[in-house]
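Practice problem: predict the structure.
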Amino acid sequence: MIVRHLLRTHPEVREVVAAVHYVGASTTRGYGRLSYEVGAEDGIGTVGPAWSGEDESNARFAYDPEIMSGYNLNKLRVVEVELLDPVQVRTMTEDVDSIIYCATDFEGNRPRAVSSLDVALLFRAVANPTKGRVEVEGVRNCLEGLVGGINERRYRDRSRTLSSGSSGAYVVANDEKSGNSRPGPTQFVLVSTSPDAYGNFETPFGEFNGLKRLGEITAMEEFPSISRTVLQMGKFDDNFVAEGQELRYSIAEEDTVVVDGVVNAVRRVGGGVVGGNFVNDGMQKRINRRDAARAAVEALLDEDIEGKKVQVYTTVRKTDVW
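Answer:
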């Protein structure tokens, strides 16, 4: 949904790189949801019967200029990547100016290996338990790749300037002497979840909300040269929350506690943090997924929330987490 909104509302973007990870025999299925959302299946297509061979049963679609001219699919590049592999991530982030990070190891608040009953995901978790966490190491890998790519481009630009015989002076981000702010969009937008969206779920690597907060700390504190925004989304609700409502923002409250060097979410006893406990007031922030995608894209150019951690929602309903 983020890719769809970005392509259709910002045609000036040079290229959108969509990272997809799928564990299984057929990688084409890993692109299925993305293909549907961006409108790649809105063209002229054919679908064979399910009982035919794989080549005949696969759906095929051709570009239809009358319908798809505004989709800007020519600017979309889909890559299959393992976010826990620094080398793959560094390759993917070459020449990238900004990243919207919305990857997760969870379905709701449960690990995908458990919630989906996917044997391949479960095998990966058991066979290589030290591989890392998408919520934490995945965020760090993308930030390292982004910083490395930016520094590499600056080095190339400086080398070209020096080789041309000029003085070698060049404009840097956030020039303190001139007072000019860094041009361009926010460089890293992390899509996370608000503390009241889901209950906790214990995993071998930590509890659900604790892992989310640790990823937020990584994004906000570990790479000071990068402009960043953290969006704590309300609970996704496409059934009872209408799409297209006004986005509402509130500053995120600190809800973490460090126990034996491990970041955890504070224990919930029932809005706000009182005596080290998160007090539940019986209400819950919610948002439609399409509005969440719109918020993530708009955060790239929203200077009011740059450098902040904010909660994003469109409505408040009675909570389903106790």
